Amino acid sequence: MISINSISTTADTTTTITEQALDILRASDDTANTQAVSVHALTVAPSAAHAPDVHHATLSAPAAHRHYEALSRGLNFLLAAVILVALSPVWLLIALAIKLSSPGPVFYTRTVIGRDGTPFTYYKFRTMRVNNDDSAHRAFLEQYVKENKPFTVERDAVTGEERPVFKVVGDPRVTAVGRVLRRLSLDEIPQLLNVLRGEMNLVGPRPPIEFEYQLYDNTTMARLAVRPGLTGLAQVRGRGTLSFAEMVAHDLEYVRHRSLLMDLKIMATTFLVLFKGE
Fold first, then answer.
1. How far is residue 258's CA from residue 79's CA, in Å, rounded to a whole number?
2. How many whole angstroms separate alpha carbon 243 and alpha carbon 255?
3. Beta bridge mates, 26
């Protein structure tokens, strides 16, 4: 039995990520029952010189329980359909608020990268003004992926303790309604359509945009050996507080240990995290 709280968060070095990726390789003995992601060199930037020399390998997601894929697909489809239908009045109110608060469409679409590196279009409620400049976000994303660099460092007013923040804060592109939706993660709800289409699950690593994916090394690509999700282990363990190395380590742990029980635990923990406003 996997406990969410038992998953280590001490992935502060790229060596740790490499070791966990190698563990996935070692755990994937039954290659007939795994989802393979081909890699030509297992390296970790920027400390590739310290990474084990593993060339021409096949990095695979270890096989889950033999019925996991079918049961997971059925559960995800059912839950996504129920949430969309049962709370449809809420979604209509959100759509109305978006239309009244700023000009532009209700939905925002973008190409992201899914399982095994397959691109698809995902949906979100629009939270930003249209025709905005994303150069600052791209600059942060590149430093985040390549250098584990935070967007800013916050200081606790009482203790004086400094805490790195690994997400864009105070973004002027975000509308007033958009800030509320993002705070509650309600902007992600339209991705339930992607779940119905089989492109995403409720639980899994978050899908990267194309620009981010282009910055990945082969080890990082291993996080995409499963369907991406609306929430995941990294999100419930440290929303906006994890370095890129830590996030990847958590995603690799999920790839390795995924099960229906773990998925249900992450779903439940997600609601608790959102309820607490973390």
1. 18
2. 19
3. none
Q: What residues make up the domain containing 81? A: 4-276
263-271 long-range contacts, CB within 8 A, separation 24+: 263/72, 263/75, 263/201, 263/202, 263/203, 265/2, 265/3, 265/4, 266/4, 266/203, 266/231, 266/232, 266/233, 266/236, 267/202, 267/203, 267/231, 269/4, 269/236, 270/231, 270/235, 270/236
- The full DSSP string for 113-181 is E-GGG-EEEEEEE--B-SS---HHHHHHHHHHHHH---SEEEE-TTT--EEEE-S--S-TTB-HHHHHH
The model's pTM is 0.76
Sequential pLDDT tens for the chain (278 residues): 444 544 444 434 334 444 444 444 444 433 334 343 333 333 333 333 333 332 333 345 666 667 899 999 999 999 999 999 999 999 999 999 999 999 999 999 999 999 999 999 999 999 999 988 889 889 999 999 999 999 989 888 888 888 898 988 889 999 999 999 999 999 999 999 999 999 999 999 999 999 999 999 988 999 999 999 999 999 999 877 899 999 999 999 999 999 999 999 999 999 888 877 66
The alpha carbon dihedral of 240, 178, 216, 29 has a sign of positive
CB of 132 within 8 A of CB of 173? yes
d(CA 239, CA 247): 10
Overall number of domains in the chain: 1
User: By the 8 A CB rule, do 49 and 36 touch?
Assistant: no
Separation of alpha carbons 79 and 105, rounded Å: 26
Nearest to 8 by CA among 268, 266, 254, 277: 254
**CA gap 34, 25 in Å, rounded:** 11
Amino acid (1-letter code) at residue 9: T
